[in-house]
Give the backbone structure.
Amino acid sequence: MAENKRTRGACAYCGREFARAGMTRHLASCPEREKVVEAANGQPGETGPLIHLQVQDAWGGDYWLHLEMAGSATLKQLDKYLRAIWLECCGHLSQFSVGGWRGEEIGMTRKAAQVFRLGVELTHIYDFGTESVTLVRAMDTRTGRPTTRHPIALMARNLAPGYECQECGGPATRLCLECAYEDERPGTLCGEHARGHPHEDYGEPMPLVNSPRVGLCGYEGPAEPPY
Ligand SMILES: [Zn+2]
Ligand SMILES: [Zn+2]
Ligand SMILES: [Zn+2]
Ligand SMILES: [Zn+2]
């Protein structure tokens, strides 16, 4: 697919937009987030470690998430989250490892606080046939109460990359895999050009969703956060 300029995303607390790295800095000082954190910390209940995770696709980093994960939550819960928001097509195997691509596997029952010390980066692989590789890095930690009743909170996510239709340059909503795989063309199409598109060896042009798994193993989304 075509190269894009750095994708931006919106802060879930204040709505301001930043690129991936800028968002890390922003979240550390966002006044709206601070209010949510203080309100959560004012509630009764146990406190514990909470970890700010930066998640990105290993290829271009155009797709990214900033999550806050409870230290008591397991990697299995993170795996489920990643499957729901980005990856799940047909129930492939997945794993976390540390030390890069061929690093040491980290069991899914491990808890976030045991694994994610500051600066630690895990590699997540989904589907060992047509891999989707995701990097998960611990950017920050705090002690307090979770801001939601879920083990993971979505703090920010990239906006869908703005692909252009290969025929007219308008906004693309579909992807032709035959163009992309056989013809070395972008394969990105607007609605109108998708309708009249002549290729069908790989099926109809598929929806372009906000996920690094677009174009792999027939992935069509929904690419929505589970909560
Ligand atoms: Zn903000
Ligand atoms: Zn699949
Ligand atoms: Zn078009
Ligand atoms: Zn095509």
Notes: The domain at 8-158 is CATH 3.10.290.30 (Structural Genomics Hypothetical 15.5 Kd Protein In mrcA-pckA Intergenic Region; Chain A). Residues 176 and 204 are 7 Å apart (CA to CA). The radius of gyration is 19 Å. The chain has a mean pLDDT of 94.
